[in-house]
Amino acid sequence: DMAELLKIKREFEEFQKEYCCRNREAEENREKENQAATQIQSWFRGCKVRAYLSHLHKKAIIIQKIWRGFTARAHVRQMVKAAYFIMKMNFYEEMAVRIQRRWRGFFVRKHIHNFYARKKYMEGLVMKNELVRRELDQLEELQKRERDCLDMVKEHTAKVYQAQRLHHLLSTKQCPGVFNSPFRPAPHEMELLLRQVKYQAPTRLASRGKACLLGIPSSTSSSFPATLGSPLIKTSRTYSSRPILPPIGNKKQQVMMVKTLAIKDINK
Amino acid sequence: MSQRHVVQVFEQYQKARMQFVQTVADLANRPQNIELLQNAGVMSLLCPLMLDVVPSIQHTAALALGRLADNSEDLAEAVVKEDILPQLAHSLASQNRFYKKAAAFVLRAVAKHSPELSQAVVACRGVDALVLCLEEFDPGVKEAAAWALGNIARHNAALSQSVVDAGAVPLLVLSLLEPEMALKRIAASTLSDISKHTPELAQTVVDTGAIAHLAQMILSPDTKLKRQVFAALTQISKHSVSLAEMVIEAEIFPAAMSCLRDPDEYVKKNVVTLMREVVKHTPELAQVIVNCGGLEAVIDYLGNCHGNVRLPGIMMLGYVAAHSESLAMAVIVSKGVPQLALCLSEESEDHIKAATVWSVGQIGHHTPEHAKAVATANLLPKILELYMNASSSEDLQTKSKKALKSVLQKCTYLPSLEPLLYEAPSNILKHVVCQFSKVLPHDSRARRLFVTSGGLKKVQEIEAEPGSPLQEYINAINGCFPEEIVRYYSPGYSEALLERLDDYQPA
Predict the structure, then answer these.
(1) Using a CB-CB distance cutoff of 8 angstroms, which residues of chain A are in contact with residue B293?
(2) pLDDT higher than threshold 80 for residue B142
(3) Interchain contact, A122 vs B260, CB within 8 Å
């Protein structure tokens, strides 16, 4: 009994000791075990959260992937449209440039600076110059001839007037005149004029000169060009419009003739 | 009895006065008597005789006064000082036609000497009186009045304006239509004197329709009339484009060219001056004249005449060529350049040479074709010589330099440029070398010719400062040829070779 009591007491003590030891150990292990449990729990929780997060990520990635693909395809479609449009515009512009190039070349060459027209113009100018020169030459020639003609008429009128005044120097059958020297081969032109001119008493009417032109026989007119016709025609007109009184000196003429005869008698 | 005696005294006095006045008038015809007459105090004696009772003494006295004033400026001033002019102007309205002619003659003689005397004539209302005379019937009176107005208007614009304000221009245009040749001449000359000063005066003349009448008179046979008509048209057309266009619209041009063959020198000169004034305004007007063959006519004219009268022709060619290159080509095609070369060599006056050089510059400066035409006529050495000649005037030298520069900048005809390499001074030389440096890189035959004719040698001999444009051109030219050739022609090469010979050891 005692032995059992002792054994129980010893067992009780051992039990107490054990209990205390176990408590002590449990106390000691409590922290460790707590930490271990915390760690295990945290790990587990972490895994759960991680799994959740990765699930979320995957879904988000799927969504973003689909969205980005959609956007990019839309963008590419837009870009393709724009590129197509640009290509078309370039093509049009290229064609427009070709058209404008041709048109501008044509326009400039035809209207602004026409090379062939200019060449033809220069050639035409040369020909025109030649023509103008020839025409001017002809005109000059004509004018010169008219002037020469007028001069000749004036000269002839002067000579006829001279002949009129020197009528008394005409040679007669008996006595050769001053202009008809026997030593000459032929009579002087003055002599011929004297023979042809009809004597008229000098009057102061200007038409006298023209009237004496009428007195010249037509043989002299052959030496003149045809333009002399006009002064002759004019003179006939003036002659008819202003009747000239006949020279009063018929008697004088006879007297003159007598005088010349007398002089010639004296000379002989 | 005594009445007859008294009348006889008066008649003697009148005869004496008449004789005095007539003798003085005859003496005044000769210039050497003028001094003597002035010293004898003829002015103070003639003045009261102008107010004499007898009309024939009046007008002979006026005639004598006019002749005196005509010949000497002092006497004209004395006429003004003696206050005869107001009396003359006043009596112009009332007297017979001989007196009017003589009084207009006095006014003309006074006005012709200087603007101050003309101003005096205007101040005493002489202009109005003369314009009244223009309305007379007698052509002699009209002629004298028109001549006096012309002398007044000739001096300056203000006097012309006073003549126009008095309403002279319509009357002058009417007197252009009169049959008397002398009156027409004087009217044309007066119109030309009036219109020469300012565009407004010319416009006034044109507004009365003068151009049509003047244009009709171009074909008249009278030489002096033609001179005056062309002078009048020239003075009208020189002011502005619109006036020149109006003159052209009167269609004178094909007809006026026949007057270029007139035997009288001044008619031809006036026609060419008219063409020059018309051509100088715009290219269209120049085109009109070129199209009716004007260039040919002017070139023939230049060939036929000599001396100072060539100047308007030369300037006309210059003005035509200056407008555009097609007109310049037209001048070249009508063989203008050889003619100008002839003018340059024949004329000795500096101003004519200057004008010729200017015209040549205007022709040649458009394109290389034009410059080639100028160069083949051998004009470039001549112009260079004129430029370098110390006895040419300033004007001639500046014009030659400008012409040379402008032609050289376009000239690509190398054979004509080579003589210039030898003689030109450095400022011209730089252009010549520049042209070579432009042409040589592209043309191998030209390079060969350049070397064989000694041009490369000359280029090497030119000294230029490094960095100057001349040096750049020389480098450009040297760059067209292989090294050996350039070294061969550089000066001093033979010496360099001989030096090498000194150092050479035969192996």
Answers:
(1) 128-129, 131-133
(2) yes
(3) no
Domain B17-166, CATH class in plain words: mainly alpha
Instruction: Give the closest residue to B139 by CA, choosing from B101, B168, B167, B111.
Output: B101
**Of residues B190, B109, B213, the one with CA closest to residue B142:** B190
Domain ranges of chain A: 2-26+42-103
Q: What is the DSSP string of B83-142?
A: THHHHHHHHHTTS-HHHHHHHHHHHHHHHTT-HHHHHHHHHTTHHHHHHHHHTSS-HHHH
Q: 């915390």: which residue's tokens? A: A38
**Which residue ranges does chain B devote to CATH 1.25.10.10?**
17-166
- In chain A, the residue whose alpha carbon lies closest to the alpha carbon of B258 is A136
Q: Which of B257, B293, B326 is nearest residue A118 as measured by Cβ atoms?
A: B326
List of chain A residues whose C-beta atoms are within 8 Å of the C-beta of residue B295: 125, 129
Reported as a single tens digit per residue, the pLDDT across B392-401 is 888 898 999 8
Q: Does A121 touch chain B (CB under 8 A)?
A: yes
Task: Decide which of B467 and A142 is more confident.
Answer: A142
Q: Which two tokens stand for residue B343?
A: 């003018």
* CB-based contact B109:B70 (threshold 8 Å): yes
Rounded-to-integer distance, Cα B70 and Cα B104, Å:
12
Length of chain A, please?
268
pLDDT per position as a tens digit, A169-219: 887 888 877 777 778 787 788 888 888 887 777 666 555 444 444 444 433
Q: Which residue, chain included where needed, has tokens 């009261």? A: B48
Distance between CA atoms of B383 and B389, rounded to whole angstroms?
10
pLDDT value at residue B138: 87
Which of A70-74, A159-163, B108-112, B302-306 reaches the highest mean pLDDT? A70-74
Tally DSSP H helices, then E strands, for chain B: 35, 0
DSSP B261: G
Q: What is the 3-state secondary structure (H, E, C) of B195-255?
A: HCCCHHHHHHHHHCCHHHHHHHHHHCCCHHHHHHHHHHHHHHHCCCHHHHHHHHHCCCHHH
